[in-house]
C-alpha cells in the first residue's frame, strides 16, 4: 500500500480519464447489458476512474480500495464531475466485513490481484469476491500477461511522456515476483523519483486453477477492449470474464 500512498498524486497523470472512457466504456456497457448487470463493485477502485465511468453509463456502482488516500482522491474526482457513489476502505480479502449487500458484478482491474504474493491470499480475495456476488454474478479481472513478461524478461517500458514529466517502468525479475520501479523524471527542474511495488508472477494456468477452486468459470478472455481474443504468447494483458458457478 505504501506505493499507492506515495504515488496517489501522480496516478491520474498517467491515465487520462477521457481516454479511458473512449477506450473502455463500450466494452463494459456491452458486457453488462449482455449479462443483465445492474449493480457493480469495483473492489480495487484506486482514484475512481471505473466508478465514474460506470456511473456515467447509468450503473449502480460502488467502489472500495485498501488505500485511504486513493479513496480520498476518488471522492474528490467524483465531486469534481458532480457524481455520487459509495466508496469504502476495504481489503479485497475482507470484503464481507464491509459489504452486506451483494452485487451483479465485481471488477478487479488495473493489475490489482497480483499485488497479493501468495496463493493463499489470492484464494482469500477470490473467495470474498465470489461471496458478495449474486447467483450467476460476474467477475471481471484484468492484469498483466505474466507468462509473456517472464518469458521475454524485457526490463524497460515507456509509460507516459508529458511536456515536463516522463514516466517509465524498470522491471527487476525474481523467481516468484517482479519488482516494478516507476521512474518519474521532471524535465523542467531536472529531478527524478522512483516509486516501487512488487507483483506476484501470476501466470494464466495458476490463475485459472485458483478461479476454479473458488467457484468461478472463465467464459471469455480478451487482449483489449475491442473484444480481440487473448493470446498468451503475444498479448500484453488478459481481460478475463468469469461467472460465479
Q: Give a count of the beta strands, DSSP E runs of length 2 or more.
A: 11
Please name the CATH architecture of the largest domain: 3-Layer(aba) Sandwich
Q: Determine Rg (CA atoms, Å).
A: 17 Å
Just give the CATH class of the largest domain.
Alpha Beta
Short account of what is shown:
The protein is of the alpha/beta class and 245 residues long. The chain has helices spanning 2-14, 17-34, 49-56, 68-80, 119-131, 146-152, 204-213; strands at 39-42, 60-65, 87-89, 103-108, 133-142, 156-161, 165-173, 177-186, 191-200, 216-222, 239-244.
Could you walk me through the main structural features you see in this protein, from its secondary elements to its overall organization?
The protein is α/β, with parallel strands linked by helices and 245 residues long. The chain folds into 2 domains: 2-144 and 203-244, Rossmann fold; 147-199, N-terminal domain of TfIIb. The chain has 7 helices and 11 strands. It has helices spanning 2-14, 17-34, 49-56, 68-80, 119-131, 146-152, 204-213, and strands at residues 39-42, 60-65, 87-89, 103-108, 133-142, 156-161, 165-173, 177-186, 191-200, 216-222, 239-244. The strands form 2 sheets. The chain has a 7-stranded mixed sheet, sandwiched between helices. α1 (2-14) runs parallel beside α4 (68-80). The radius of gyration is 17 Å and the shape is globular. The two termini are 31 Å apart. The mean pLDDT is 94.
What's the SSE blueprint?
Blueprint: H1 2-14, H2 17-34, E1 39-42, H3 49-56, E2 60-65, H4 68-80, E3 87-89, E4 103-108, H5 119-131, E5 133-142, H6 146-152, E6 156-161, E7 165-173, E8 177-186, E9 191-200, H7 204-213, E10 216-222, E11 239-244
Parallel strand pairs: 1-2, 1-4, 2-3, 4-5
Antiparallel strand pairs: 5-11, 6-7, 7-8, 8-9, 10-11
Helix pairs in contact: 1-4
